Amino acid sequence: MLVAASHGTSSPAGQRAVAGLVDAVRAVAPCHVAAAFVDVEQPDVPTALDALGESALSTAPTVVVPLLLSAGYHVHVDLAEATAEHPAARLAGALGPDPRLADVLAERLAEVGLGPDDGLVLAAAGSSDAAAVVDCRRTAALLADRLGRPVRIGFLSAAEPSVADAVRRERAARPGARVVVAAYLLAPGYFHDLACAQGGDVVTAPLLDDRPADARLVDVVLDRHAEALRSRAAA
């Protein structure tokens, strides 16, 4: 079984986008797929695991896959604690960093016509967890390799530099140039709205929007599930 655990959002567009990803995973996964949330929406992960029942958890390998782009507090604490209450369940790694996410980001940038003279800032949600910040910086490096150009990173909360500061630095480095903000965010909602207010000339769509979920995102979710199962078997 696969429990797809997203952050949760009050944004209807964000809810639809994440539900679309879960539905796309469900359509191809070799197991039962359930949705759960860390915050805002219901059911939360403990409730989702309880609903499966201990007998089901013990007879079918169950993996909680965080639909989160980096392994911050929600993964290391919230989801780890929720999963620990069910010894038969296993917690997978976060979706990022992963080269496939960088590929999707590159496509979002192509959609807004990123040019060689444009400044570029990768906007991540941010975290007080140093490991999550490292994950986001690794994604910036993957995107830089993918594009063959520098990528400046900024954070929308908790970490430095802020996206607004990163945009200002790009403007100073490239006088008169357009500054493009690549939204390293899973879905529409609060943080994407915030990214749009940081002074960039254009902001890309998040990884999920009103289009069908990208097959590469589906593959990343399935790979995290498979990795956790292999880890369980090797333990």
UniProtKB/TrEMBL annotation:
Keyword entries, A-Z: Lyase, Metal-binding
Signal peptide: none
Listed Gene3D superfamilies: 3.40.50.1400
GO molecular function: lyase activity; metal ion binding
Name recorded for this polypeptide: Cobalamin biosynthesis protein CbiX
Species in which this protein is naturally found: Agromyces intestinalis
Lineage: Bacteria, Bacillati, Actinomycetota, Actinomycetes, Micrococcales
